[in-house]
Amino acid sequence: xxxxxxxxxxxxxxxxxxxxxxxxxxxxxxxxxxxxxxxxxxxxxxxxxxxxxxxxxxxxxxxxxxxxxxxxxxxxxxxxxxxxxxxxxxxxxxxxxxxxxxxxxxxxxxxxxxxxxxxxxxxxxxxxxxxxxxxxxxxxxxxxxxxxxxxxxxxxxxxxxxxxxxxxxxxxxxxxxxxxxxxxxxxxxxxxxxxxxxxxxxxxxxxxxxxxxxxxxxxxxxxxxxxxxxxxxxxxxxxxxxxxxxxxxxxxxxxxxxxxxxxxxxxxxxxxxxxxxxxxxxxxxxxxxxxxxxxxxxxxxxxxxxxxxxxxxxxxxxxxxxxxxxxxxxxxxxxxxxxxxxxxxxxxxxxxxxxxxxxxxxxxxxxxxxxxxxxxxxxxxxxxxxxxxxxxxxxxxxxxxxxxxxx
Length: 407
Hints:
The chain has helices at residues 22-34, 47-54, 73-83, 99-108, 120-135, 161-174, 192-195, 203-209, 216-222, 248-260, 270-275, 311-318, 330-339, 343-346, 354-377, 390-393, 396-400, and strands at residues 15-19, 42-44, 62-66, 89-94, 112-115, 148-154, 180-184, 224-225, 230-233, 263-267, 285-289. By secondary structure, it is of the alpha/beta class. It has a six-stranded mixed sheet, sandwiched between helices.
């Protein structure tokens, strides 16, 4: 029912409602008139009457159905889906206050479920949201680009993983013109919203506390827009309020974001990776961020002693080459923080961000190669990334560190 709307069907009404009782009809009537719709389109009879009528007539763009007299709402909604034309936005109402029914109805294709009795504000919000869906621009590129999910993980605190995550998300959205979501999973100390100069909102904490609420509509309302193509989901939970999760909320968020955005960048704290290692399975690319230092504690170190090691020695210690090195530009970092902009945006034209541009290109290229490999092999998902990805997109070593399931 919520398939992409195709304009040009002149025989379709803007709005039609089927109400079981006069109280519901009277609640809808003034709001419909207020929105410029004819109140003659508010019919008596509930969902089953809607199914009978729409089986022999064109579907409206916005359809309101009353489920109050339905003994099996899910079965009846499925029957409605069979007679509704693609693009019809369906709003249902009923008297049953059950979260499972609500979730099942949304999963079946309706846009919203309103609990009776209906208030004017409730109806205005639901209808406004339906109109927004219909008026949203529909872009047909001819080919569907694969979703790209990138997890950014720091080897320790303070290495700049969050700085890179926000810059990558900004580059995907602005330079490559892809609708991008930034998911900052550091619930208490995340800086993604601060770096983009927006308020974090309560979306992430609400999702963790109520995973059953997570769906497409929740994502649309909870995500905070930083730019036209970049949205963020983050939190600033009080430090005296621990957030306990089994990881299901994080998994569902990733699932919904895959359907709503072209790119997802996940700022993934190491603690999350340890507690919920399965989250990395759905990321196509992992960016491991480190400083060229050794995280050790030295005792009786001379004040004049050199505490850092050079790149060659560092690469020798980890037995591999570093893919990209982002120079430490204190002036640019301070200016980006002052402006509330990602490093990549504040440093346009600077040599400092050249490695970030190369990294963004490599991630996009890796995802496209992976999608091509999936098509060629006839599988829904590619099992491997492109050759030479090393820590950037090759998960063999990373997954090997995860605990094995007992057989």
